[in-house]
Amino acid sequence: MVPRPAPPPSDDGSEEEVGTTLLALPDGPIEAGAAPSHTTSYIGGYPAFPPSTASSAPAAVKCGVCQEPIPLLAQVYAPLVDGENDRTVYVWACARAACKRREGSIRAFRASARNEEYVADVAAKRAEAERIAAEERAKARINPFTTKDAPTGGLFGSAQPLFGAAAANPFAAPAPAGEAAPAAAVAAPTEAVAALSIATEPVTLGPPLPAYQPAQYLATIDEYLPLPESDDEDDVDSDDDETPEMKAEWRDEGWERLLPKGVDDIFERFVRRLDSAEDGSTQVLRYDFGAVPLPYSSSSALFKKLFPGAPVRAPSSEEEEVYLADWYKPSFIPPCPRCKGKRVFEVQLVPQLINVLRPSALSTTGAAPVPAPAKNLTEDERKAELTRLAKGEGESEMEWGTIMVFSCEKDCVGVGEEWVGVEWEAVVEA
C-alpha cells in the first residue's frame, strides 16, 4: 500500500509540471432523492458507510464540545493503490458559534471494507509477478553465465487507479472489474467472506441530523503547477542591472502592499500554491496519501509541531528555497488505536469549502432550506441578534484555515475515528 507514484518529469516543453496531489472541485448538486453511496465523493449531505460496517458505523457524530450532532463537511472515497479495501474518509465540523476554534469541534472517521474485486485483482497481479520471476530463475539455471535483471516496479505490477475507477472523476464509484483472474490464481472466498460481499445497501444517516444541503459531487484534477522561470540570456529585462538584494527588497515591498500587515511567509506560500494550480482556484480539498501537507500559517500550534525549527521567512533567492519536507516530523501523531499502525497524512480541506458550505445551507429535513424573505430588523431585533451572536448561540461561518486528516497507513478494516489537525483562520492585526 503505497502513495500515488510521482509522474516522470515533463520533457515536452511544457511550462507546467504535475505533482502527486489530486485537487477536488465542486461538480454540481446531487439530485434530490438520490441514494448516497460510500463509493462516491461529495461535500455536504449525509454520509454513507459500507454495508459490512453496519455494526460499527456511528448513528451520529457529535461535537466534542457541545455534544450535539454535527454536519458532514466531506466524504472522500479513496481506495489505496494495490489495496484490497473500499476506503472512505469522512470529515465533520460543528457549526455552532460557541464551539468555533475549540478542540473536538472537528472530527474525522475512516471506513474500510474488504472489496473482493480488489482482492482478486491484487492476487492476479501477485501470481503474474511470481510467474515472471519463476521464468527468470529457470532461464538463469539453464545458462548460469547470463542473467537478466529482475522485473522492476511494484511487487504487484501496474497499479490500480488511486481512487478506484479510471473514469474522469476518480472519486466516483469503481467500474466493474475487467477480465477475471485465472481460477488457479485466486482461491475461492470462504463462506464468511462471501456473505460479506453480498450486495446490500450502504448504511446511511439522515434527518433530523443537521446537514448542508444540497450535497455536491466532487470532481478531481491533477495539480499542475508552473515550472520555475529559467534565466534566458536572450530575454531583455529592464531590471537586468539590479542586484539580487535590490530585487529581493522590491519583492518584499511588493508583497507588503498586497498582503495584510502581519501575514507570514508560510501563509503567502499557502495562497500562492492554491492560486497557481491550473484550474484549481475552486479547489475545496487536496488528496495525497502519505505525502507532506501544505501548512497554512507559521503561527499555528500545528505548524510548529509538524515542522519544528523550520524557517518561516521567505528566502532572498530561488537558490535558497526552503523545502518544508526536510523539516516535516509527524512522529507525535498517535498510531491507529485498532491495529497500532502508523498514521500518515491523507487529505486536507482548504478555505474555499467555507464559501460553499454556508450556515444558510444547514437543514435538518434532508432538503435544501428555503431562503427566508429579506426583512428589515427593528432596533430591538438587531440588538437581540447581536447579543445572541456574542453569546455564541446559533450557527456561524467556519473559521479554520485548513483541516488535515491523518489516517491508518495499514488500512485496517472497520470504522473508526482518525486524527485531525486544524490550523485556525489567522487573526490579522490592523
Automatic annotation (TrEMBL):
Q: Name one GO biological process term.
A: maturation of SSU-rRNA
Record-linked InterPro entries: PDCD2_C
Q: Which Pfam families match?
A: PDCD2_C (PF04194)
Q: Acidic residues composition bias: which ranges?
A: 229-243
Task: Give the domain of life.
Answer: Eukaryota
Organism annotation: Apiotrichum porosum
Task: Report the protein name in the record.
Answer: Programmed cell death protein 2 C-terminal domain-containing protein
Q: Name one GO cellular component term.
A: cytoplasm
Ranges for the region named Disordered are: 227-248
Where is the Programmed cell death protein 2 C-terminal domain positioned along the sequence? 264-424
